[in-house]
Amino acid sequence: MNEADRSLMAQVVGGDTTAFNEVVHRFYRTLYRLGMGWLGEHELAEELTQDVLLKVWKKAHSYRGESSLARWITVIAHRHAISLRRKRHLHHWVSLDWVWPPPMVPDTSESTTLLDALAPVLVSLQLLDPISRDILVLKEIDGWSHMEIATHFNLPSGTIRSKLSRAKTFIKHRHPELGDRHESVI
Q1: What is the rounded average pLDDT of the residues 167-177?
Q2: Could you state, in order of their start, the residue ranges of all structural domains in the chain?
Q3: Per-residue pLDDT tens digits for 103-162
Q4: Nearest alpha-carbon partner for 63 in 6, 2, 112
Q5: Which of 66, 69, 95, 165 is most buried as measured by Cβ atoms within 10 A of its Cβ?
Q6: Spelled out in words, what is the top-level CATH class assigned to the domain 1-97?
Q7: Beta carbons of 126 and 35 less than 8 angstroms apart
Q8: 159 vs 162: CA distance, rounded Å
């Protein structure tokens, strides 16, 4: 798909640590944000980020370039998040320990006030059923299309749209202060 992605991963396969550092730099923050959305805890988001990057290093040879590197890494991350939820029995359990004080965000240029503002939304995300949460995070944080999400979950596109709509309505009702901007905050 993307020749630059294929070239970068070919360098990683060859053991080029500079190329891998570029992958880390490009995807660390995205993986962390996805982890926070899916798992709701700083420690688990960090664990997911580190584990996925390690998998990318070890499994770089399996990247065939049929999709973008970002999509390939996100699929690995999503599968790992599901595995972490199962291991930690996070299906119905929500830890609020991380909400206050807010955790340090890996990129220190991020504003703590932004994290303070998003903390209640992240808690609300954890109250959604896992599939609805995952769909919302993939759509709103990572920008996947309805069709890509439907393919990933092997569900009809209408089901994806319905779950997404209900999840957004749930967040909007819990956070009326977001007004019509809720989609850009989630």
Answers
A1: 85
A2: 1-97
A3: 444 444 444 455 566 667 777 888 888 899 899 888 988 888 999 999 999 999 999 999
A4: 6
A5: 69
A6: mainly alpha
A7: no
A8: 5
